[in-house]
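RECORD TYPE: inverse folding
INPUT: structure tokens
STRUCTURE:
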């Protein structure tokens, strides 16, 4: 046992991205409601039962917005279907409800074998040629699902007791009663935390409003400080004013909900940099928190000792000083990933022992140990949703006279002068860098789209003060979660939906100021995997005759090709016009060919737009797709007028040739582009539609490399 009390700081982080579609306000995913009834409320209640334990809870303002909206009855795609009679659901709606209602916490499946068996039956019903679940089974699946996403502390409520007493023979009344219980519990979440704060048992902290990676908002170059080898987007996003706005708005919204602004912030994903620390200090934030690896990378080698972790530090910035707490990674991760397999009392004893060891490691200085992790995600794999573990842990801490649970602000009040941190490393809680949110082609393309939308706002003279709705949409698109799911680091069956929400937020930056959104926002950032034969890559240089005809068989033989099928890449209902898109190049020119469905060819009422998205934004336009030769014009950024050397010819097919020099492209540069058919200035078809044309501008060795391949 250490001679001096050890200060133990718990910070439980509550966060969900904004699942509400900016088009109609419907929440497309149910996780705010589900975590409210399974995690947020009981986390407050477990602590309330142990008044001798103090903790800090971190709320992201975008989560608070959604909790309040849901409590007020805001639409939710899943819960609105659950409230309807099963017989009224379409076949598609039934399939979606069955899929969602099968997403059960592990502890619920272990607790209720009938639910587990029904989930397996629902999975088999999704197979090819399988019959859908009968109405009675779907109703039972809905009811089990609602029970599973209630914390066990709520099972004593009358609605849950009645459903459980039926032993799985559920009626619509059971399901509807549980829906009412969910709504009632959801409305109690924020008041429960207000009450704990009012009695001084918790400190409430915040994150930047929409949970963005603040150092990357300030400038993408910060990613290279920790990972110089990381590939960055072609267009370098930099918007320190956005980072400052998201911090300032978070402080104001927190004060609106809880009565006072927060004294501290958990920067989203524990991501910090010298610039963002200065922004926090300027906003009046007293403390920040991050991961221990960020601390080690901020200290010279000789000071990277465990005793350095167990104290708060001071960082002096041009805007003032801010304190920094660094999480004990091992202790935090043990709660997140290991103790779920232990008996609760043994896990609690292990934490207490390790905290005491930290006190001894601190040497002559009083120790402050920081445990920081999500307050929502890990409990699904704990027995009884983690309740027995939390009860054992809090009871053990109440009886440990040599360990004081304290909040960060309480620690700072008695800490005196803090040691100054010589510098602050730029990094996050994952590997002390930012590779989870930038570097992969999908992530980088998302940053490019974000940058273009922001530049369009600025170019239109829009400002957050005069055009708040458009900038609200931009703020939402800056959230970290979209970038988290792009790329290969994490997997979710809802990746396409996250992709859609990200692009809808960007669309809203245009729509909310009365402008049409660019058609390239219809193209997924993470395209669905093509079926065999749908996409062919170029196999060599091509030299087509730009005459609008199939001149000879080998003219486009080595080109890349998208087989678009009967629907083309149509954005709207009805058959598309384009059946195939060919693309290729010689050393000097890019070539594009569109083939059309019989009777659905181009005409004078249509225009063609070609959007170059990477490595820079360029738009070409061919006005009036009447038969014959047409001019190729350059629009927007970078100048206008006809593109020298470019040709377009329309006959039985459309053929286009554009010099790379006219697009400002150099050998070796990666290219991403997409084409659109326009009618009256409105996009009526995007090709390829669900993907982008991707290639690299050929260099002198291209032909030889293709031959050797």
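DESIGNED SEQUENCE:
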């Amino acid at each position: 046992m250490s001679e001096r009390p050890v200060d133990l700081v718990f910070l439980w982080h509550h966060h969900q991205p904004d699942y509400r579609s900016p088009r109609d306000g419907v929440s497309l995913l149910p996780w705010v409601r589900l975590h409210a009834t399974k995690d947020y409320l009981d986390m407050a209640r477990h602590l309330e039962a142990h008044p001798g334990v103090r903790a800090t809870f971190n709320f992201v303002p975008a989560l608070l917005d959604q909790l309040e909206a849901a409590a007020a009855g805001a639409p939710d795609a899943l819960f609105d279907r659950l409230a309807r009679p099963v017989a009224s659901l379409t076949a598609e709606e039934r399939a979606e409800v069955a899929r969602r209602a099968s997403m059960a916490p592990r502890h619920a499946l272990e607790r209720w074998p009938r639910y587990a068996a029904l989930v397996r039956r629902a999975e088999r019903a999704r197979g090819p040629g399988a019959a859908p679940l009968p109405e009675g089974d779907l109703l039972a699946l809905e009811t089990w699902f609602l029970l599973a996403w209630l914390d066990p502390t709520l099972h004593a409520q009358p609605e849950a007791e009645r459903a459980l007493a039926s032993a799985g023979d559920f009626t619509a009344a059971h399901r509807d009663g549980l829906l009412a219980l969910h709504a009632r519990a959801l409305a109690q979440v924020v008041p429960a935390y207000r009450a704990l704060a009012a009695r001084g048992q918790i400190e409430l902290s915040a994150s930047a409003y929409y949970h963005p990676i603040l150092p990357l908002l300030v400038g993408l170059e910060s990613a290279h400080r920790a990972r110089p080898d990381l590939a960055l987007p072609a267009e370098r996003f930099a918007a320190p004013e956005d980072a400052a706005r998201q911090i300032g708005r978070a402080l104001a919204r927190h004060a609106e909900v809880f009565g006072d602004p927060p004294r501290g912030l958990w920067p989203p994903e524990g991501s910090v940099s010298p610039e963002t620390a200065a922004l926090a200090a300027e906003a009046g934030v007293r403390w920040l928190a991050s991961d221990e690896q960020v601390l080690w990378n901020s200290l010279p080698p000789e000071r990277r000792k465990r005793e350095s972790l167990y104290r708060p530090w001071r960082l002096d910035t041009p805007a003032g000083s801010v304190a920094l707490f660094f999480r004990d990674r091992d202790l935090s991760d043990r709660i997140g990933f290991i103790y779920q397999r232990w008996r609760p009392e043994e896990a609690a004893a292990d934490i207490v022992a390790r905290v005491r060891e930290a006190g001894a490691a601190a040497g002559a200085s009083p120790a402050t140990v920081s445990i920081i992790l999500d307050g929502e995600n890990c409990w699904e794999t704990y027995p009884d949703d983690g309740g027995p573990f939390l009860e054992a842990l809090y009871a053990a801490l109440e009886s440990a006279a040599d360990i004081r649970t304290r909040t960060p602000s309480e620690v700072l009040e008695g800490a005196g002068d803090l040691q100054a941190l010589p510098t602050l490393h730029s990094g996050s809680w994952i590997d002390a860098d930012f590779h989870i949110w930038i570097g992969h082609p999908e992530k980088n393309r998302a940053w490019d789209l974000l940058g273009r939308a922001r530049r369009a706002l600025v170019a239109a003279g829009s400002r957050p003060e005069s055009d708040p709705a458009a900038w609200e949409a931009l703020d939402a698109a800056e959230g970290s979660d979209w970038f988290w799911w792009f790329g290969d680091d994490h997997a979710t069956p809802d990746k396409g939906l996250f992709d859609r929400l990200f692009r809808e937020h960007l669309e809203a930056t245009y729509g909310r100021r009365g402008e049409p959104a660019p058609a390239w926002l219809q193209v997924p950032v993470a395209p669905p995997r093509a079926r065999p034969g749908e996409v062919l890559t170029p196999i060599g240089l091509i030299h087509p005759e730009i005459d609008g005809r199939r001149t000879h068989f080998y003219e486009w033989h080595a080109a890349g090709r998208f087989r678009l099928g009967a629907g083309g890449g149509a954005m709207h209902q009805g058959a598309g016009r384009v059946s195939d898109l060919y693309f290729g190049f010689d050393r000097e020119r890019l070539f594009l060919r569109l083939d059309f469905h019989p009777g659905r060819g181009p005409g004078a009422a249509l225009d063609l737009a070609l959007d170059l998205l990477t490595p820079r934004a360029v738009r070409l336009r061919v006005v009036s797709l009447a038969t014959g030769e047409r001019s190729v014009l350059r629009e927007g950024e970078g100048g206008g007028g006809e593109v020298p050397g470019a040709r377009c010819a329309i006959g039985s097919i459309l053929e286009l040739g554009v010099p790379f020099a006219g697009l400002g492209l150099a050998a070796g540069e990666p290219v991403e582009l997409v084409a659109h058919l326009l009618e009256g200035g409105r996009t009526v078809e995007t090709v390829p539609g669900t993907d982008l044309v991707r290639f690299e501008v050929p260099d002198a060795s291209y032909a030889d490399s293709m031959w050797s391949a």
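NOTES: DSSP finds 25 helices and 23 strands in the chain.
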